[in-house]
């Protein structure tokens, strides 16, 4: 991943977290989601990225071992098909 793409993902992720923290996210059929009192700005960790890429390259549907993630959580999602333009995922 390039530094420019990292910055796009990081900014997009923190933008969504900011909207959620302020109570500005709407969920279809549920209305506005509650605001968050203690949502922190996320920092980017290239070591976590490398571990996530290594795990994803193994095509496992299981989560990685918690000892490999520096006491952080993990979300997994399978997306069918081949995405040749990862930069579009940040939009």
Description:
- With 91 residues, the chain is mostly helical.
- It has one domain (3-90): CAP (Pathogenesis-related Protein p14a, 3-Layer(aba) Sandwich).
- The protein is 34% helix and 4% strand.
- It has 2 helices and 2 strands; from the N terminus they run αββα.
- A two-stranded antiparallel sheet has the order 1-2.
- Strand 1 (26-27) and strand 2 (31-32) form a beta hairpin.
- The chain is globular.
- The mean pLDDT is 84.
Care to give the gist of this entry?
Helix content is 34%, strand content 4%. The chain has 91 residues and is mostly helical.
Number of domains: 1
- Low-confidence region ranges: none
Q: State the CATH class.
A: Alpha Beta
State the CATH topology: Pathogenesis-related Protein p14a
Architecture (CATH level 2) name:
3-Layer(aba) Sandwich
The average pLDDT score comes to 84
Secondary structure elements and their pairing?
Elements: H1 3-21, E1 26-27, E2 31-32, H2 46-57
Antiparallel strand pairs: 1-2
Task: Summarize this structure as a short list of keywords or feature phrases.
single chain, mainly alpha, Pathogenesis-related Protein p14a, 2 helices, 4% strand, CAP_sf, CAP_dom, SCP domain-containing protein
